[in-house]
């Protein structure tokens, strides 16, 4: 297993490039199932999750050329409309094949994702929506089997603003007969991006980015050539790393509108953030110069849960107390014990963590437990003025493209090595 070895305590300086957005790329790759044409996607990040999704599409019979940032997919002959447990357990986003498969092939068999490190994460809303569109759903030995001759448009009230649920239903409705209305839809930039791609393919979707999305079903969709938006969570992670270490970093291709809640909170904490042409620049005198700042995660446009752990890493050193409330997932504080091993003071009660800023963190061997928790530990290690090891880096590689190769040119001492456990 690989690890990252980090000698921290060095401010970051320079320019860092943001890659394409993981959580936009994954549903967009699945959208290729909606057409028999060859789809070309650009600015696709080189990530383990992208490889897993391509492997899943190949398993089903799609032809692919995967050479990120370029990916070509042709799903003309899907011979096996199934997502097996082995792939779904590696990546929950595999469930995004469900909507497109039922819509275009009339049948899908997808392993239930089950719980994961950050919570139970059911998919009842995805299933409820497909049923409302006329699909029959049954459970068969841990698999969801969905069938329908042709889906029919419906009005679907989502009980919560689920991101992949909204995406699955939007893709299904794109080929349904008649009009679908998704009420209480998620509003993330990745939803708008998927709608843009589907519309380029010939779909008729409007309202994406608001909580009511209208989809007028069409009979066929055609191939598309599309460059994926930059990753707002990767951009935010670099801004936080720079603010934590003290320094001056320009994050190229960070889209300010996509990271407004983070920018607002970092400003509140005392970092200097400037929108510049083509990105965002951050300057700070280090995490000790920042003020303790409260955050509460919420669906977009609230503070993203995917940035909670990294923000907490910075707050472990800020002056005073910060209250971090995780409202989206029930178990997303697994980074806290690891931060504690580096000397952080964090008390967790249910979904609320109270962070008291300390003078410094000390280097330690810490274990990544999920993707964003890993990024949090990297930021913490970058601030600690001695050596840390972040183990189980495969979690990080799911969502960050060669993070060490992006941080090293900014002055970080960070290397990948082989590690135990
Ligand atoms: N939920 C239900 N029922 C459903 C769907 C969701 O109860 O049918 C609950 C979930 O358990 C959770 C909340 O609703 O408590 C929101 O979950 P959501 O469905 O929005 O999450 P997701 O679609 O599974 C996506 C991202 C996650 C990100 C969340 C929240 C992708 C591929 N994944 O997951 O990204 O944390 O939205 O913004 O888009 C990550 O990149 O590290 C990551 C975990």
Secondary-structure blueprint:
Elements: E1 2-7, E2 12-17, H1 22-31, E3 38-42, H2 48-60, E4 63-67, E5 70-74, E6 82-83, H3 85-88, H4 98-105, E7 107-111, H5 124-132, E8 136-140, E9 143-147, E10 155-157, H6 163-174, E11 179-183, H7 189-200, E12 204-206, E13 212-216, E14 225-227, H8 232-245, E15 247-252, H9 260-269, E16 272-276, E17 279-284, E18 295-296, H10 308-315, E19 321-325, H11 335-341, E20 345-349, E21 352-356, E22 365-367, H12 371-383, E23 387-391, H13 394-397, H14 403-407, E24 413-418
Parallel strand pairs: 2-15, 3-14, 6-7, 10-11, 18-19, 22-23
Antiparallel strand pairs: 1-23, 1-24, 3-5, 4-5, 7-9, 8-9, 11-13, 12-13, 15-17, 16-17, 19-21, 20-21
Helix pairs in contact: 1-2, 1-7, 4-6, 5-6, 6-7, 8-10, 8-12, 10-12
Bound molecules: uridine-diphosphate-2(N-acetylglucosaminyl) butyric acid.
